[in-house]
Amino acid sequence: MKQDFQHQLYYYLCRLPVLKPPIIIHFTWLEKNKRRDLDNISAVGRKFILDTLQLCEKIPNDNLNYVVGFSDRYEKSEEYGVVMEIEEGVELDEW
Fold it and tell me: Is residue 93, in this structure, part of any structural domain at all?
């Protein structure tokens, strides 16, 4: 399943420029109906997307040095999908 998903994502994500860390990703998950649990939609999808960003060398790693946050929204749509908005070079307080 992961390989199929990454294969579909690879073409789109590899066209992005190299991202300037740290980043925050805002995901909008597009769903046809309310049948699936929210955590099942986003948890697996985020994992596959972040791993593909690494595979395409857009981020060196998805640990807290490079990805410092994400948000999820869910919208009804005719087709399943995801829209991503990426904030780069986010200023953070040291912790």
Answer: no
